[in-house]
């Protein structure tokens, strides 16, 4: 992709923005070109350069402002035609399974790396595919796959209803790949080299990969956490800081899973106690995952508690405003922290957090 951007010859800037008009597009790293918008689908932006060449650019390669332009130009097609009309209502209790086998066509994700697809297809057992209301499921045996599908549709509805005002940028359903056993899972991870070998499940873009682990509580919590990432990725044009991203997945993984099981959700009690939290100065400066099980546990728990504090500090519309400023408008979290919560620096945030934990 870098070579493609380096070939761009000149820049043409027009003051007005509309489909089929040439404008300046900028990529992360400083590369730019003059081109008109053609289409946006499954994370890929098609641009037509002034010499007639049509190029494919991953949305994430564009700067934040240009990603917003893509979504606006894509219009209604950026929302995904499968999303029901009207506001989604937050579900209560388990939902009936929507399950339709896919027997023809090309069901695998368009953006799945070839190394990953090759690793999946190299496993001994054949793959089957099905479609639910919101997802496409790829599986080797059907029992656990249907449990995953039911939870996925529920989690989608729960989060979408909890974050009103967010607009989907994805144009196709997200995918869930379920491997039949721990042995197949380990073989897949070694061949695909797409995630750490110790991973129990992971999300890459619009696809979640997991193993058939049964229905234990710990496995269900992991599934709910990763499912939250998969759903949130459909609404976030810009990835939030790692502490906010993981804190949200922990939050919705816990409260959403409790709601799915039919339990009454008490968000304040559900957060539990927090032993040895990260300082918020350290937490908000973290760029990658900490090393060691103990530090990872502290990181996830502290992140969830900070999200919980913000959720409960004012009201849900305020938290949505805070989140949209970061994940849609591309602002640093400090800006809406000040504008929405009147917290102007990290020491003040730490003080508020200490009071929340007491």
Task: Provide the fold topology.
Elements: H1 2-6, E1 22-26, E2 32-41, E3 44-49, E4 54-58, H2 64-74, E5 100-102, H3 114-121, E6 128-131, E7 135-139, H4 142-162, E8 174-179, H5 182-192, E9 201-204, E10 207-211, H6 217-232, H7 242-260, H8 267-270, H9 280-285, H10 293-313, H11 316-327, H12 334-341, H13 346-357
Helix pairs in contact: 3-5, 4-6, 4-7, 6-7, 7-10, 11-12
Say what the CATH topology of the largest domain is: Zincin-like
Question: Largest beta sheet: what is the strand line-up?
Answer: 5-6-7-8-10-9
The arrangement of helices and strands along the chain is: HEEEEHEHEEHEHEEHHHHHHHH
Uncertain runs: 1-19, 76-86
Q: In one word, what is the shape?
A: globular
- Specify Rg, calculated over alpha carbons: 21 Å
Just give the CATH class of the largest domain.
Answer: Alpha Beta
CA-CA gap between termini: 50 Å
What's the mean pLDDT score?
Answer: 81
Major sheet: 6 strands, mixed
Give a structural overview.
- This protein is α+β, with helices and mostly antiparallel strands and 358 residues long.
- It has 3 domains: 77 residues, SLA1 homology domain 1 (SH3 type barrels), CATH 2.30.30; 141 residues, Zincin-like; 119 residues, Neutral Protease, domain 2 (Orthogonal Bundle), CATH 1.10.390.
- Strands 5-6-7-8-10-9 form a 6-stranded mixed β-sheet, sandwiched between helices.
- The longest helix has 21 residues.
């Amino acid at each position: 992709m870098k070579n493609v951007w380096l070939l761009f010859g000149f820049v043409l800037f027009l003051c007005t923005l509309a489909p089929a008009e040439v404008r300046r597009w900028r990529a992360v790293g400083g590369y730019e070109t003059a081109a008109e918008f053609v289409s946006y689908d499954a994370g890929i932006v098609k641009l037509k350069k002034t010499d007639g060449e049509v190029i494919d650019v991953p949305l994430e390669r564009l700067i934040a402002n240009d990603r917003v332009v893509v979504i606006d130009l894509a219009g209604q097609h950026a929302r995904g035609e499968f999303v029901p009309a009207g506001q989604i209502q937050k579900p209560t209790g388990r939902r009936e399974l929507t399950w339709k086998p896919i027997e023809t066509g090309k069901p695998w994700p368009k953006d799945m790396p070839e190394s990953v697809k090759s690793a999946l297809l190299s496993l001994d057992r054949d793959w089957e595919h099905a479609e639910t209301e919101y997802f496409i499921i790829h599986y080797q045996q059907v029992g656990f796959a249907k449990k995953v599908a039911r939870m996925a549709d529920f989690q989608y509805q729960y989060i979408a209803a909890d974050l009103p005002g967010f607009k989907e940028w994805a144009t196709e359903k997200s995918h869930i790949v379920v491997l039949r056993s721990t042995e197949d899972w380990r073989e897949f991870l070694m061949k695909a080299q797409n995630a750490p070998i110790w991973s129990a499940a992971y999300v890459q873009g619009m696809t979640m990969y997991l193993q058939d682990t049964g229905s234990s509580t710990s496995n269900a919590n992991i599934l709910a956490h990763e499912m939250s990432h998969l759903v949130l990725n459909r609404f976030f044009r810009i990835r939030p800081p790692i502490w906010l991203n993981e804190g949200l997945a922990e939050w919705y993984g816990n409260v959403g899973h409790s709601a799915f099981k039919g339990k009454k959700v008490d968000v304040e009690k559900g957060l539990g106690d927090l032993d040895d939290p990260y300082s918020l100065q350290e937490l908000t400066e973290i760029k990658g995952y900490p090393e060691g099980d103990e530090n990872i546990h502290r990181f996830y728990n502290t992140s969830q508690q900070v999200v919980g504090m913000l959720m409960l500090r004012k009201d849900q519309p305020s938290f949505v405003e805070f989140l949209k400023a970061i994940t849609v408008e591309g602002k640093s979290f400090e800006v809406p922290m000040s504008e929405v919560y009147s917290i102007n620096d990290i020491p003040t945030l730490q003080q508020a957090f200490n009071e929340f934990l007491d």
